[in-house]
Amino acid sequence: MKKHFKMVDLDCANCAAKMEAAIKKINGVNDAAVSFMAQKLTVDADDSRFDEIMQEIVRVCKRVEPDCAIKL
Amino acid sequence: MLTRILVSAVLFALSFLLPLSGVFRLFYFITVYAVVGWDVLWRAARNIAHGQVFDENFLMALATIGAFVLGEFPEAVEVMLFYQIGELFQSYAVGKSRQSITALMDIRPDYANIERDGALEQVDPDEVAVGDIIVIKAGEKIPLDGVIIEGSSSLDTAALTGESLPREVAAGDDVISGCINQSGLLRVRVSKEFGESTVSKILDLVENSSSKKARAENFITKFARYYTPVVVIGAVLLALLPPLLLGGSWNTWIERALIFLVISCPCALVISIPLSFFGGIGGASKAGILVKGSNYLEALSETEIVVFDKTGTLTKGVFQVTAVHPDTLPESRLLELAALAESFSDHPISRSLRQAYGKPIDSSRVSDVEELSGHGVQARVDGLLICAGNGKLMDRTGVQWHDCHLTGTVVHIAVDGCYGGHIVISDTVKPDAAGAIAALKQMGIRQTVMLTGDARAVAEQTAGQLGLDSFHAGLLPADKVARVEELLEQKSAKGKLAFVGDGINDAPVLSRADIGIAMGGLGSDAAIEAADIVLMDDQPSKIASAMRISKKTLRIVKQNIVFSLGVKGLILLLGAVGLASMQAAIFADVGVMILAVLNASRALKTEAA
Questions:
Q1: What is the pLDDT of residue B608?
Q2: Fewer beta carbons within 10 Å, N or C terminal of chain B?
Q3: β-bridge pairing B496-501 and B409-415
Q4: How far is residue B89 from each of residues B445, B448, B541, measured CA to CA in Å?
Q5: Which domains does chain B possess?
Q6: B592-600 and B267-286 are packed helices; what angle lies between their axes, rounded to 10 degrees?
Q7: For residue B280, which phi and psi values (nearest 5 degrees)?
């Protein structure tokens, strides 16, 4: 399932890149893209575990840029 | 943030005038440093606690604290000050870019006037259902896709197509959301709900377009991941090895290591590349060209072969009278007789004759109408016996006729048993089609090819008219795919093949090509779905514009990459041998970033349409 999420306070382009790389490594994520310019997160992951994966993604993002939040 | 920068800048400037020495000097600079840089230190500490050590906050903190330790107080403050200026500028530039895209996309309608029980109610466009009647007053934005049931007006489609010329509409015409109703009141029956409307689709498309990354973007991201650790390790080696192995002074080498640290941030690259592509896509949308991803914009700049569909793409797809060849009668008379004779028929040919005639049909002049299927029409017009139809009709009535040298559908006219002449009806090429092909050739496109299911003679004429390199006619959809495959073999490894079609029956070819370009047709859903790039106003000349935009964007991207890497590399080298100062390092970091961002924002500016 592919879903788009808006991100808030994504200020660092490098952080966006780091987040994208980290999210792609999460088990169950088929593909992910973080667009720094549009402040958007696109995730393609297993339908069955989607919510669980999203929680993991939020954790990962907070670690890279604590100020940034994902609008779930 | 700005105040902090200004305050510390003033204090910093003052430091040159005030008589500072010793501990007092240290405290003065520490204060100025704290004013401008406390948040960097705080973020560095916090991120380390989270396990994120190597980020720009840490590197800047390390570099500046290191400078303090070495006794270089002004340099430390300078680095932090300029770093913060750079960050502020970066936020500003990104903010402005995002804002301008949002403004561009201000096509979202806020309300709809729905007709309920005879009264007008203002509601959210979401609440309107298919089949509801909405009213759009002059000056208002059309909130939903639909069909005009009453009223006529002119529409401003600039927000969607970039076209400055208004589009005339009347009862029976389709209208799409996002256009502005200029002059008249329109009553429209809604055909699609808001989520499915053209406006929603376009907004979705543009918003998500930056998720499909170009090769250049991915390269930069990968590069940045290695760049920082490599430079930091280099800094550490630079600080430790020469003093330990060669007996150099610690101070000198640590200072050089600090210079490395200042340049270790790949900010300039990581920010300017996406910004350029974002600007390019935004600039294209302003011109009515929707690009679904940065990768398509990149691919477009590498196009070598462009393949066109004929009907609906290069031609209008509508039949019109293109020539009137009377034998003896004046042209207008022949047309008049033909139009009147055919006035009772609803055949597309009859319609185009009536349209060409232009004047209102006085049906009292027409009598004894007989439709002869497969042949044509026979009627009495102004007392004269008119036969209008194909060669078979002429043969049947025993009239000597001759064919036309032009291709298309020919309607022969006989007046009271004598041959009057013939009228040619055909599909017309779009007025800008020839110019579009010429422009593409000028841009260096190696091959322009046309594929069509139409007859060979018509295809040949069209191809010649437009100056196409080659064409293939009489093709079935499957044949079109096969031809495209053949052409794909002919291009170079890096070159791309673009296919331009009107979407409806071209889906397989659009997906086979490297880049699928569809005529948006002011609402063709199939086109918007299947293609990678959508031309909102169906004009082939926009293809050349799109290519120009893509080439410009890629040029800017390459300029930024070469410039940023070049300057950083150079200063790193100079810094290692002691020929570059902290100031040079600051320029290599902040200065380069500002220049790269300014250059990137050029991508947003489109040429005049």
A1: 44
A2: N
A3: unpaired
A4: 39, 45, 37
A5: 112-143+145-191 (2.70.150.10), 317-428 (3.40.1110.10)
A6: 10
A7: -60, -45
Of B211, B288, B312, nearest to B533 (Cα)? B288
Q: How would you list the strands of the sheet with B180-181, edge to edge? A: B167-169, B153-156, B180-181
What fold is seen in the domain A2-71? Alpha-Beta Plaits (3.30.70)
Give the nearest chain B residue to A10 (CA atoms): B91
Tens-place pLDDT, residues B251-281: 788 888 888 888 888 877 788 888 888 888 8
Q: Are B443 and B546 in contact (CB under 8 A)?
A: no
- Name the CA radius of gyration of chain B, rounded: 34
Of B46, B55, B207, the CB nearest to A40: B207
Decide: residue B24, CB within 10 A, 0-12 exposed, 13-18 middle, 19+ buried: exposed
Phi and psi of B44, rounded to 5°?
-60, -45
Do B211 and A39 count as a contact with CB atoms less than 8 A apart? Answer: no
Do B130 and B145 contact (CB within 8 A), yes or no?
no
Closest of B55, B63, B54 to residue B81, by C-alpha: B63
Nearest to B560 by CA among B198, B177, B275: B275
d(CA B201, CA B590): 39
The answer to whether B309 is a known catalytic residue is yes
Query: How high is the pLDDT of residue B104?
Result: 65
Q: In sequence order, what are the residues at sequence separation of 6 or more whose Cβ sits closer than 8 angstroms to the Cβ of residue B554?
A: B216, B297, B298, B301
Q: Are A19 and A34 in contact (CB under 8 A)?
A: yes
Question: CB of B582 within 8 A of CB of B67?
Answer: yes
Q: State the angle between helix axes of B22-49 and B56-69 in degrees (0 to 180), rounded to the nearest 10.
A: 160
pLDDT band at B297 (very low <50, low <70, confident <90, very high): very high
The answer to whether residues B153 and B181 touch, using CB atoms and an 8 Å cutoff, is yes
Q: How far is B274 from chain A (nearest CA, A)?
A: 7
Amino acid making up residue B216: A
Indicate yes or no: CB of A38 within 8 angstroms of CB of B270.
Answer: no
CA max distance for chain B: 119
pTM of the model: 0.78
Distance from C-alpha of B64 to C-alpha of B328, rounded to nearest angstrom: 95
Q: Are B404 and B424 in contact (CB under 8 A)?
A: yes
Options B309, B427, B502, B589, the catalytic residue: B309
Burial class (CB in 10 A: 0-12, 13-18, 19+), B505: middle
**B575-606 b/e with 16+ CB inside 10 Å = b?**
bbeeebebebbbbbbbbbbbbbbebbbbbbeb
Residues of B in contact with A17 (CB under 8 A): 221, 224-225, 270
Q: What tokens were used for B116?
A: 């309920």
- Two structure tokens written together for B255: 């200072």
Model ipTM over 0.90: no
Q: Give just the sign of the alpha carbon dihedral B217, B160, B200, B530.
A: negative
3-state secondary structure of B237: helix
Q: Identify the H or E element spanning B333.
A: helix B331-341
